[in-house]
Amino acid sequence: MKRNQKVQTQRVQKEKFQRTQFPVLLPMNEKQKELLEALKYNTLVVAKGSAGTGKTLLAIWHAAKKLHYGDVKKIVLIRAYQPLAGRSIGFLPGTAEEKLLPFYQQMIDYFEDYLGKATTEIHLKNKTIEICSLETIRGRSWSESIIIVDESQNLFVQEIQALTTRVGDNSQIIFAGDNTGPQTDLKKGMDGLTYLEKICKRYNIKDCSFNVFGREDVVRSGLTKEFVIAFEEEITQENTGSSITNLYEAEIKRATKVSHKPSPKPNPSTKSVVKE
Length: 276
Prior knowledge:
The chain has 276 residues and is an alpha/beta fold. The protein folds into 2 domains: 8-217, P-loop containing nucleotide triphosphate hydrolases (Rossmann fold), CATH 3.40.50; 221-259, no CATH class. The protein has helices at 2-19, 30-41, 55-68, 96-115, 117-126, 157-164, 192-202, 222-240, 244-259; strands spanning 44-49, 74-79, 129-132, 145-150, 172-177, 208-213. Strands 3-2-4-5-1-6 form a 6-stranded parallel sheet, sandwiched between helices. Helix 2 packs across helix 3 (55-68), helix 3 (55-68) crosses helix 4 and helix 4 packs across helix 5 (117-126). The termini are far apart. The mean pLDDT is 85.
């Protein structure tokens, strides 16, 4: 009896959600339009490129809409979080989910924008929006779900191998990230996003879409766009040794050599002349 009441309540809630108009999102440029089309028709979608181009936002809008209308049963959020520049606030208190929440807050904020705060909280409580850590994905299988992997430029090759084999029937996996240089924290070896693209091309894996955003597609703000351009230019300058950091390091080396230069020794063959 209790189960029937619970099922009935869920159906009423679902119908209530379906009667509510879902927010419309219009693409701001051609690249965003292409990504939205790819999200409609492909099982594996990669959105990579410059920061501030709307990669994560579009992925979450697409997933939230599918969940809102009952097209999927669940959304799984995974984030390849890395301490920024080696900084860390140490161990966080609480449950595993409470520890992860600060890293996922921006994604949760997007869901609240499209589904509403109360509805998002209900989904999080019922695990229809699940925050998942990379450490716990082995052995999992997600059917009728959308898996969103954010900051995927920080994935290792082994993590890509694990993630792509978790996708069950009627599911979709979306990778969002920027492996161009400034945003990646993996400085040695191949990052997982690059590996994923190469393996899909080599073995001609179908139903995959790779969407690349450039500096011209930045929509977050004018300031963000200017900094993205500047940082990407600096990466180009690094290859020629003329970036700001290259010049600064060269200046420090020159200053160090001058400060450590030995003072000239007196010539022993020179005799002092005593005036009488």
